[in-house]
Specification:
With about 70 residues, the chain is α+β, with helices and mostly antiparallel strands. The protein is about 25% helix and about 10% strand. It has a domain of about 45 residues. The chain is built from 2 helices and 2 strands, in the order E-H-E-H. It is globular, with a radius of gyration of 15 Å. It starts with 19 loop residues before the first strand and ends in a 5-residue tail after the last helix.
Length: about 70
Amino acid sequence: MTEKLFDIKIGYASPKNPIAVASMAGITDSKFANGFANAGLIILGGYNLDKPTNEAARKEVERGRTE
């Protein structure tokens, strides 16, 4: 099969499959990520899914946070 099976876009990224993995226990390092190398997306750290958390993140960036 030569065509893309999934046409997923997240900003400029195109994950290879629809599987996203995010640690819920706070262990978000390379050892965690390497255990899920076949996932389409691995989230290390927090992520924002709604308007209030996006607004909070915007304020953090304004205060100089860069991560």
